[in-house]
Amino acid sequence: MAFEVDLHTHSYFSPDAQYSPADIFRKAKMQGMKGLVVTDHNNFAHFEEATRAAYQEGLVTCQGIEITASFRQSDIHVLGYAVQFDTGVFRRVFEKMASGYNERSRAIVEKVVLHGLAELDFDILIQSSRTGYVSKVNIAYAIAKQRGIPITEALALVERGGPAYVPYGAWAITPDEAVDLIVQAGGKPVLAHPGDLFLRRSSLPVSER
Fold first, then answer.
1. Burial of 23 per CB tally in 10 Å (0-12, 13-18, 19+)
2. Burial 137-168 (b: 16+ CB within 10 A, else e)
3. Positions of the chain with pLDDT lower than 70, given as ranges
4. Cβ–Cβ < 8 Å for 15, 72
5. Alpha helices, DSSP H, located in 42-195
6. Are 54 and 8 in contact (CB under 8 A)?
7. Entry pTM
8. What residues are paired with 41 via a beta bridge?
9. In whole angstroms, what separates CA 33 from the centre of its chain?
10. Mean pLDDT in the chain?
11. Is 103 in contact with 125 (CB distance < 8 Å)?
12. CA–CA separation, 167 vs 128, rounded Å?
């Protein structure tokens, strides 16, 4: 049985997706869905287009977001939902995060080149970003495309245990801070894909679970 509502999707305002919010809602409508929420990573650039697309397709929606937090150098994703967020609460934090991501990604790219994993240029990667920052996922996709390897294999090179891994800096926020941020902005926080805490390379080591 197909789900009628999807509360966790990404548009091309996230590093791990390629379709516009309008495309996503149109495809959802074609599949017979009744509702959908776009929850892009660490930005709210999709809010306006997603709301407009939902109205045009006659689908139920609300504003959604997914914030990447760090706990013991592991990715913890926190979803947030609201009828209308106070985006001013997010703005300064997201700007700081974007700057931190770019600093980290420059270091990852340097390691990628140093180890001969791919010939990448951070400045070229940032030019193609819709949100002003580059993540390890963007870098992994670039490696996969250049080397002709699966994205999972490319991700292993830049995640914990990989030769091009770079840990988060002091700019990264904690899960508690992500929850507080969502609440302050008028939303409801939800832990995203908890199973990943035990399956991904960037998840907690067995000794720390």
1. middle
2. bbbbbbbbeeeeeeeeebbbbbbbebebbbeb
3. 1-2, 197-209
4. no
5. 47-57, 87-114, 122-127, 136-147, 151-158, 175-184
6. no
7. 0.88
8. 66
9. 23
10. 91
11. no
12. 24
